[in-house]
Amino acid sequence: MTLLPLQLSQLRNATLPDGSTCDVELIDDVVRGVRPSEGRPAEVGSSELDLTGFMLLPAAAEPHAHLDKALTWDLINPPAGDLVQAIASWQEYSAGMTVESIADRARTQALAMLRNGTTAIRCHVDILLGPEPLRGVQALVQVRDELADLIDIELVALAGWQATDAAVEAALDLGVDLVGGAPHLAPDPSADLRRLLAIASRRGVGVDLHTDEGLTGHLTIIEYARIVRDWQQPVSAGHCVRLGTLEASELDEVIAEVLASNIGIVSLPITNLYLQGWDHPVSTPRGLTALRALIDAGVRVGAGADNVRDPFNPVGRSDAFETASLLVTAGHLSLEEAWSTVSTGSRSVMSLPPAGVSVGSRAELVAVRGSSLSDVIANAPADRFVIHAGRLVARSHVVTDMAIPARFPQLEMR
């Protein structure tokens, strides 16, 4: 069933992570009041929404997606493997893609994320090799415009070292928001880093770089931090897997540089747990950045899924609750830290206004059927309401039929 966006005025009987219940007043796209629940049901046919039995949380924000690559695993059938193999598989396949095929997959993926509770996406879109390098950019600009009333999409020009400066400039001219790339993969990482930062500085835009995505190798993040020290534009770094391998003294130096430049760090557990460690069959290391040290030091940290069902990650449910669960099990974050990282932390890295269940915050919210934060992160119930800019933009309701043993009628599901 198609659901038209409905402007909401009241959310009633919502459960918060501390176990309390509340009523929430919304005016346009802002939370204007939060008070203890009166226990009154929502008025039928009104702009009120009854959230009895649902936990209300800040909506997820995806700080690092690749919508142009999404859902290509079955199309490519690539070999399972590390980052180098994934890049090779993708480059071979991408040569034959059209603007229309990219847009179709990107749109499908963005809507899947929206219905699961993600209301903002930062998408890295490849500057492709060959004679038509901007096919992906054209497709994603189209999808961003199509879905503008439902979800916020921000675009980053992902320029490999082979991409020309002119192609990056052209992507910005088409409406891409930030400059991106992966300097650590270039033959001369420092030169590529400086090239990309020079383009961003010249154009007055922010930067979000794939940074040090490996368990070994030279660090680029320190040079990155020093170059952007006094920038007013937003700067962030994704992956940063190398930081998770550093000794404490070396890591302290990196964190000091990151803090001094206010660089937001993005962890991408599901993709990096898949891509890293293939050459370590024994005691396989975690493909994660130094989450605990970064958070404890006060660095702005967000987390996302990165790739979904493409050569860089064959799985993924397009659901921030999956990312939060991995942050708990693989990253050893608390439940509260995990959800904060995929929601308010990611919004901070993306330079978006704060959102959540507090007066003055943006009404970017997700309500999930469940009784506690551990319940909803563990089980990721599909019954959800998604609120973007104070409007109901997605609703999911699941019905389960189950056979009950005749000897135990008391087991009947309620």
* CATH T-level topology of the largest domain: TIM Barrel
Uncertain runs are none
Name of the CATH superfamily of the largest domain: Metal-dependent hydrolases
Proper CATH architecture of the largest domain: Alpha-Beta Barrel
Sheet-strand content, in percent, reads: 15-25%
Describe this protein's structure.
By secondary structure, the chain is of the alpha/beta class. It has 2 domains: 6-57 and 357-396, Roll (Urease, subunit C, domain 1); 60-349, TIM Barrel (Alpha-Beta Barrel). Helices cover 33% and strands 22% of the residues. It contains 13 helices and 17 strands. The protein has helices at 73-76, 83-94, 99-115, 135-146, 165-173, 189-203, 221-227, 248-261, 269-275, 291-297, 320-329, 335-349, 373-379; strands spanning 6-7, 10-15, 21-27, 30-36, 48-50, 54-58, 60-65, 118-126, 152-159, 178-181, 206-211, 235-239, 264-267, 301-303, 365-369, 384-388, 391-396. The strands form 3 sheets. It has an 8-stranded parallel β-sheet. A 5-stranded antiparallel β-sheet has the order 1-17-16-15-6. Helix 3 crosses helix 4, helix 5 runs parallel beside helix 6 (189-203) and helix 11 (320-329) crosses helix 12. The two termini are 25 Å apart. The model has no long low-confidence stretch (mean pLDDT 95).
List keywords for this structure.
414 residues, alpha/beta, TIM Barrel, 13 helices
Offer a concise description of the structure.
With 414 residues, this protein is of the alpha/beta class. Helices cover 33% and strands 22% of the residues.
List the helices and strands and how they pair.
Layout: E1 6-7, E2 10-15, E3 21-27, E4 30-36, E5 48-50, E6 54-58, E7 60-65, H1 73-76, H2 83-94, H3 99-115, E8 118-126, H4 135-146, E9 152-159, H5 165-173, E10 178-181, H6 189-203, E11 206-211, H7 221-227, E12 235-239, H8 248-261, E13 264-267, H9 269-275, H10 291-297, E14 301-303, H11 320-329, H12 335-349, E15 365-369, H13 373-379, E16 384-388, E17 391-396
Parallel strand pairs: 2-5, 7-8, 8-9, 9-10, 10-11, 11-12, 12-13, 13-14
Antiparallel strand pairs: 1-17, 2-3, 3-4, 6-15, 15-16, 16-17
